Amino acid sequence: MKTIPDLILPALRATLVLGLITCGIYPLMVTGMAQLFFPDKAHGSLISDRDGTVRGSALLGQDFTSPTRFHPRPSAAGTGYDAANSGGSNLGPTSQALRDRLRERVVTYRARNRLPADTEVPADAVTASGSGLDPHISIRNASLQAQRVADARQIPIARVRRLIETHTESPALRVLGEPGVNVLKLNLALDALP
What we know:
Blueprint: H1 4-37, H2 39-42, E1 46-48, E2 54-57, H3 96-112, E3 136-138, H4 139-153, H5 157-166, E4 168-169, E5 180-182, H6 183-191
Antiparallel strand pairs: 1-2, 3-5, 4-5
Helix pairs in contact: 4-5
């Protein structure tokens, strides 16, 4: 018959070995591979401006409100684009609060972009993403904001439309989702114009 120390010692050894593997070797190996094969992503996909100052991440949305900039989709994360409070609103399609909020956002979007009252507003212009941190807007959303941005910056609309085209990103793996425009990248490209 085995004694308690005979049972405990192998269990402690197994715990130490597994702890060393799962808490030490494996994380170091995965981190090293990420640094080697995906260095940009391993460092948070940070985006810098012309001066080298980090302005944000390509993976997280930011709130832009100036008429000279493209505006992101609404955020349900905390007070807006707060990564510590990432998540949706949990309001469903039958929610009166959601319908009222969407109606208000449509009116605000049309007014902000000086659009006729019958202009169809893209869904991403008035709804938050599941995480509330989506950095992309649809091409239609960017196109509807283009005239406002061009007027505010006093540049030709054709130049703004070209920037939208050059900053349009393909869907993930070319099949998941739809093409979109990263708002931070587009706004930094606008800032870089001579």
